[in-house]
Amino acid sequence: MHATRARTIALAGNPNSGKTSIFNALTGSHHKVGNYPGVTVEKREGVVEFQGEELHVVDLPGTYSLTAYSLDEVVARDFVLNEKPDIIVDILDSTNLERNLYLLLQLIELGLPVVAALNMTDEAAEKGIMIDHATLSKTLGLPMVPTVGSRGEGVDKLLEAAVFSMDRRTLPRMPSYGDDIEVHITKITELLASDAEFMANYSPRWIAIKLIEKDPDAQQRIQTHPRVGEIAAAQETAWHWIKLHYGKDAEIILSEQRYGYIHGAVAETMHRKKLRGISLTERIDRFVMHPLIGLPIFFFVIWGIFKFTFAIGNYPVVWLELLFGHLEGAVQLSGLPAIVQSLLINGIIHGVGGVLSFVPLIVILFFCISILEDTGYIARAAFLTDHFLHAIGLHGQSFMPLMLGFGCSVPAIMATRTLKSPKERIATIMAIPFISCGGKLPIYVLLAGTFFPKNASTVVMLMYAAGVVLSILSTYFLRRTVLRGQSMPFVMELPPYRMPTFKGVLWHVWEKTWSYARKAGTIIMAVSILMWVITTFPKAKGIDAYAAQARASLTSAQSSLDPALAEVQVSALVRQYQLEHSIAGSIGKFIEPVLAPIGFNWKIGVALLPGLSAKELVVSTLGVLYGAPVSEDDSSPSLRQSLREAPDWSPRIALALMIFIMVMPPCFASLATIRAEAGDKWLAFQVIYSLVLAWVIAFLVSMLARAFGM
Fold first, then answer.
1. Rounded CA gap, 170 and 235, in Å?
2. pTM of the predicted model, to two decimals?
3. Would you list the DSSP string of 303-332?
4. Would you tell me which CATH number, out of the four given (2.60.40.10, 1.10.287.1770, 1.10.1040.10, 3.30.565.10), belongs to the domain 179-272?
């Protein structure tokens, strides 16, 4: 009988080893699987049932070593040391076996059961790499199971081996560092093991090895040991002896000893066939990684994605707008009380419907981006931009979080944990909010499609490009002022090109789309109803008299005006009067003096406020503020038409508003993530810095647009 506590399987491995694919195959969970390092920043959890037992599976961040430098490596190391999983399953990239075995040796030294998955065996075979997994298993003293994680091949056998090792508490064979060094490891191990409480928490041999390697975390963990003085003396003796006999520092010698052990194991078990010609990956990279044409190809690809998104997506957007227009007409003819009709039309249909209309564009855009990620092209883009990023003070690996920022700032900010330099990490966090996330896209689409219909896709792409340029300029400024310091060198492997799986792309798109639609059905609906409340109440004093006066004025001024059309215009004037005297009107007029120099009126000010919660809410709020009543043919004009006909709007205002929204502080979720990752000081800096910058840039754009006659 097993204990009632669910046993834990920890999945470890180098970045880009296919670890998350194995996790998905084991648990059936559908998480994002990117074809580049850094995608898994925090541990992910799932449950798998095996022989009637529920097993808890934890997907740890990718790490090359248990000597942690970046925050994602710290997460992996601390989980293994502090949570003590029942078994560790190390996922190895079979195409880079020698490098991947380095982490495996360190995991073996932890004194826990370990099983290894020889993943990507299909890619290894294509490269002519043949691994004798049975002999390698005997050499290292642990099960080695061939797998292809992307197709789920070998996963059942891997799970079976893991459960068998847990049941038997089978421990792998400890690697040796040679008799001379083992003497010192044994001495420190015995000192550490002399304390029973310490023995219960850590593997003394692993801590001893880390102490000889001068690992600061291991040094911190022994400070409460009753024999810490003797341990420190034994450390000094080991360091001195190794330096004297090898002429190198201890950490270098231990690393060389590991690689020597690995080299011997690989030489016995791995054979490489000589293949004719060059691989497909190499042939493609001759073009996409070319120093002269590589970046132009990248920009052309991104431009093509935006053109494709609008060319295909505009049709379903129009269909959805017509659908919501018919819904509005149906409500008008339903005979429901006027206040209920107003709530349904002005609160829900104009608010939520305005946001949902852009779902097709979200689907197409993320479909294209997912394909780029899963093929491995995004990793190439990181290399292409590395030299430029270093010039502005960022690390080449900053490209990954910045790219994630096009989807959502929250995971992008969290992904900065892969950066080892604190200053580069803060600089990247400060740059991410300027990247246009998925929440800003509906605003760009609405305003570009309304005021620049012939060049909508180009305008939207220019907004995305402007966000990138601004993040670059901001980073350049910060890295030479408050975040001054040297950039670290960029080292990252290029994965081979892989054909995206339909299932992987589909789930990526589904996750993003469902998150967007769920937000529309919950947060956006709630805020839309709130906006309806503050724009409808309190009822303006004298509104009935104002309506009568407006009706009389229209009738006398245009005697030939159709009565039904006249009533439509009266309704529009009455709603405008009500808005100005509502709670929203009071709020908008309070902040209007600050925004007036840009050209924004009080309605735009009201629309910007919920945008601090979620950028999509700007569209829904504009839908509430500018929603038009039903015309005589029972059809309702879309929000685009309402804005186009509004006297307080123009291409200049639309352009300035897009700029302001691009630069203003990100949503509350992103701000909370900045606080968690960078602290209160940088949160306050981000809010103040981006608000001031948004006003200044929007003002300058507005003035330039006016000068050009917009």
1. 31
2. 0.63
3. HHHHHHHHHHHHHHHHHHHHHHHHHHHHHH
4. 1.10.287.1770
